[in-house]
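Contributing new records

If you add data, match the layout below exactly. Sequence lines come first and carry their own label; structure lines follow with theirs. Keep one chain per record. Anything else will be rejected by the validation script.
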Amino acid sequence: MPQSGSLEFIASCYLDLHMGVPFCLSPSEPSRPEAPQRLALAWTLGLRHQSGSWPPSSNPVAPECAIANSHVGADGWQKCLGQGLGSTVAEVCSKPAASAMKKPFGLRSKMGKWCCHCFSCCRGSGKSNVGTWADYDDCAFEEPRYQVRREDLDKLHRAAWWGKVPRADLIVMLRSIDVNQTDKEKRTALHLASANGNSEIVKLLLYRRCELHAFDSKKRTALIKAVQCQEDECVLTLLEHGTDPDLPDVYGNTALHYAVYNEDKLLAKALLLYGADIEAKNKCGLTPLSLAVYGQKEKMMKFLIKKKANVNAIDKFGRTVLILAVCCGSASMVGLLLDQDIDVFCQDKSGKTARDYAVSSQHNIICQLLSDYKEKQMSKKFSENSNPGKEAEE
């Protein structure tokens, strides 16, 4: 058990208070991450700097000064610890009560990335359009939120979606109703509550031991819906209770794919912290990194590369991440990939390399970047072959 007053203890208290889990840090609980991981997650939730950045060091444990620089502050944490389990985030946060923090990750933008024709920048008649994108199915990203009609829902599902039922009434209701019953779209109450951000109802449903891994009509779990809709508190509650982050939907996308598509680094960090597979492929063979490049989401691309995602991943058409970056016409992404240990000679199933796509699209800057990279590689190999003894000594 961490010592009272230590940063690790404060982080544990915050998680226990906010997530509604037992007030302890027992290593024997398999569903709970190790203490440093929980500390990192606590940093994500409440100990972040005003800029919303993650600690720059490779160690996930935040420095002691983090509390003083966070929007909660040291006094707020002491107040939180002093008031016991009944405290709420709103009570310790220095932000005005009028802006109640429904989202623990309140410093980052919400949604705004969904459109009817995703990745439209790669679909026009410009240089990016080299006949590649028609092979990929974007419909998975078209409608993140559920379309709900009141008349289609029963009493429990209405309560889960709108969340306006008094807690006492909901507890009585849950005693007499099957919490896993589904509507016409195969959605459970947990799906609806998670998708609409009703975290207190999510906790009650989990307390009643509802099915964590039930699938809706598109084979999506409640976790996937919460990530899609960026309902942060619901995501963290589901992860804390042992939801598998790697279950794919009908399109093969995992929760991490949707976090990447939303450019939601904080949820992506939380998913990876709970063991999400960074190399999971959807039905098009796109890993989260491939998806980031495909969608020209450069910040997510940098984030995933730092998390050691495979830069040589190949999709079902044999296209590498580099080929996708070339097809997007993004010289900056190509440059970032060339800084890694990457294969520039790999051919896709049509026999084309990254350079072939760059030439056919008349991306002159990218062609020059690839030529320069090849020259450096050839020069490096020549130098190694000329000095085999020196290399062996090293």
